[in-house]
Amino acid sequence: MKLIIATIKPFKLEEVREALTEAGIRGMMVTEIKGFGSQSGHTEIYRGAEYAVNFVPKVKIEIVVTDTMVDQIVETITKTAQTGKIGDGKIFVIDVNQAVRVRTGEKDEDAI
Fold this sequence. Notes:
The protein has 112 residues and is of the alpha+beta class. Helix content is 20%, strand content 37%.
């Protein structure tokens, strides 16, 4: 099993969720986050004063999938979240050693 962590632009969340649902994903965790990468933030003007925005709003999606689904899900997120502009996000894939469904006690792939 693998944990896929994707950071994307917030306005792409619903489109990515729909694409993942069509790809067979039955559950995910979503968190609103702030961060910076290549874009290193930006400046904005508020009430006539300019100020630096060092952290940019993003959305973090976490999904646990079977090893056979990893490539398909990474490709789905990449294609759907991509705008072609800086700050589109990142995807990380991490090994998962164990999963347990609390309600039923099912383990590993049966739990996801």
